[in-house]
Amino acid sequence: MNDTVTDFGLIDRVIAYRPEANVELIQRALRLSAEAHAGQRRASGVPYLKHPVEVAEILTQLRMDESTVVAALLHDTLEDTHFTREQIAAEFGEEIAWLVDGVTKIDKLRLVSREEAQAENFRKMLLSMARDIRVIIIKLADRLHNMRTLTPLSDEKRQRIATETQEIYAPIANRLGLGWIKVELEDLCLRYLKPELYFSLVKQVAAGKKVRDRYLDEVREIVEREIERVNIPAEVAGRSKHIYSIYQKMSDQNLELEQLYDLSGIRIITDTKMHCYALLGIIHSLWQPIPGKFKDYVALPKSNGYQSLHTTVVCERGNRVEFQIRTRDMHRVAEEGIAAHWKYKEGGPIDPSGDDAFRWLRQILEWQQQISDGKQFLDALKVDLFSDSVFPYTRNGELLEMPRGSTVLDFAFAIHTELGLGCVGASVDGKLVSPRHVLKSGQTVEILTSEDQRPVREWIGFLKTARARSAVKHWLKSEERRRTVDVGRKVLAREIRRQGHSPEQVLAGIDKALNALKVADEQALYSEVGYGKRSIGEVLAHLLPDSRVRPSFKERIMMRLGRRDGAVVITGEGVMVHLAGCCRPIPGDPIVGHVKRGRGLVVHVQDCAQLDQFDFDPELMVEVAWDEHPTCPTSVPVQVLTRDRTGILGKVSSAIADAKANISHAQIHTTEDRKASFNLILEVDHVRHLEKVIRAVEKLPDVLEMRRLRGN
Ligand code: MN
Predict the structure, then answer these.
(1) Is this model's pTM higher than 0.85 or not?
(2) Distance 414 CA to ligand 1 centre (A)
C-alpha cells in the first residue's frame, strides 16, 4: 500500500467537529480507496481518487460521523474496482460495508425510466433509507459532486443525470431538509437542462446586484439600530435568492425578472423563539407588512422540519423586502435538515419511527405496504415529493397536513371515506364552498354531506391526494359492476318476454346456461351480458333451446368486427369504427366502446367525462382493445405555452419533427403578458410517442408547458 496518500485536509476537517474521531480508520480508507482507484481517471482527466475525497468533504460540511466519511471514501470501490464487499467488511466492519453496499445499489437503480421499473426502484431506495438514512445522505453528496463536475461528459449523459437529479434527488434533499444541497442541486440542474435561460438569468441578476446590496445595507443598518435599543441578541444579514427559485417564480407567476421585487432579502438569526416574535414585531412597526405574505413556520413547521418566520414589508422608498427570522437551531435545521437531527444521536443509525423529522419517510413506507400497484405508488410519491403542504383545521380544531392544492373533497376523504363519498361541499371559515374548492393553511373546514350524493368520474380530475382518488375509483368500479349486473338481468328478461315466455320461470333454470357456458354464478353471467362481453343470443340458446333469437343491433355490429378475448379489436377508424371527438383516444389510451345507431362503434377514452353525461345505456357499451399494430396515424390536439421570443415556433416545430411526429394543423396566439400559445394537431402513433414529444418540447428553454387537450 502507498503510505504517502495525502488526505487533502480531510482529517483536520473531521477533527474540527469531532475531536475524538478515529483518525486511523479514515487514513486506512484513504489508502484503500487510493489503491483501488489507482490509475483511474475521471472524464475530466483528474485522478479518480479526487471524487471520493470530495464527496467525503461534502459530508464533513454536514458534520457526519466517521463511519459515513469512511463509507464515502469507499463508495465507488465495489462498482468500479476489483474490491469486494467481504474485503470491506473484513477491513472496516459490517456497518461500513453495509453503507458502501447500499450506496452502490442505489447507483445501479435507473430512477428515470419506464414507470413500473421506476416505482420498483423507488421502493428499493426507500427501504435502504429506512434502514439507515446515512445511505441516502452519502448518495446525495455523491450526486452533488457529480453535478459539480458534469461538464466533461457527453450531452446525453448530462441530460440524463441532470433530469434524474431534478426529478428525484433535489426533491429528496428538500424532503430531508438538506437546504443548501437542494439549492445547489437545483441551480446545477437548471444550468444543464436550460443553459441559455440559466446564463441569461445569472447575467441579469448580477447586473442589479450592486444597487440591491447597497439598498439592503441601508435597510440592515436601520434594523440593527432598532434591535440594539431593545437589547435582543441577533445577527442581521442580507441574502440572495438562488437562480432556480427565481426561475420558478418567473414561470409560476409568469413574470419577467424586472417584475420580481424580492431577488434578495434579509435574514435575522436570534437565540429564542420568543425573540423571533419580538423581532417580527419590530419589523412590522418599522414598515407595513403586505397582507398574505406573512408565514409562521415556527408555530407550524414544514413537514421537513423547516422553521422560520417569513414576512414581506413595504420598506424604504416603497421597495418590498422579505425578512426571514429564526433561531440558531432552526437555522441549522433549515440548512442541514435530517443531518442536524442525526448528530444528536451518536452511535448508530437512527430509528425512523421515533423522530418527527421522519414523518414523511414513515408515511411513504406505510403507503408502500398499502398500495400494491406500482404506478399508483409512484403517483402518490410524486405528489408528496413535489408539493409543499397546507394545514387546514377540522371543525374540532385538529390540524391536518395535506399536499398543496388539496381540495375540500381531499380533506373529506382524509378524515373518513364515507365523509368523502357523501361530500356536497363545505363551510370554510363560515363560507359555503364546492367540493373542488382549494384549501389554504389555517382555514377551518366543516364538511357538508348529503345522503343523495354519489361520486362521479369527474372528481378524479381535481382530487390531489392518492387516498381520495383511489377511494373514488374503487367506489365507481363496484358501482359500475352493480349496475351492469342489474342491466344484464333486465336485458335478458326483456328478451325472454319478447320471445313469449315468462322471465321468472325461464331464469329459474339458469343453472343450465351457467354449466354450459362455464360461468361461476348468476351475478357473473348478468355482468358479462351487461358489459357486452357475452351476447344475449348465446345465453338464450341454452335457456330456450327452440328460440330463434334475432341478433340485436349491437350483436350485428360486433359480428362484423374482429374480437380477441371477448374484446373488439380496434385497428383504426373505418366505416363501423369511429374515435370519439370529445376525448380523441390514441393508441395506448385505456378505451371503451359505445354502440351508436347510425354511426357504429364509437371509441372513447375510459375516463372521458362525456361517459357520465351521456347517460349511456350500458347495454350498448362494448369492451374494446387496441390492436398491437394500429394502422391509424392518430391526430391529437395539444397546446404549447411559451414565452414570446423570436424563433420560438421554429424551435418547437423542429423539436417535434426530431421526435418524428407531424404537425397537421397549427394556430398561434400571443397574449398581452408576452406569452405565446400554440394550438397544434399532432400525428403520433402511440401515447408513448406523444409523451416522448412532450418531453422533447418541454426541454426547450422558454417553453413553459405542453399538454394534451381534451374535449372540443
Ligand atoms: Mn461516486
Answers:
(1) no
(2) 41
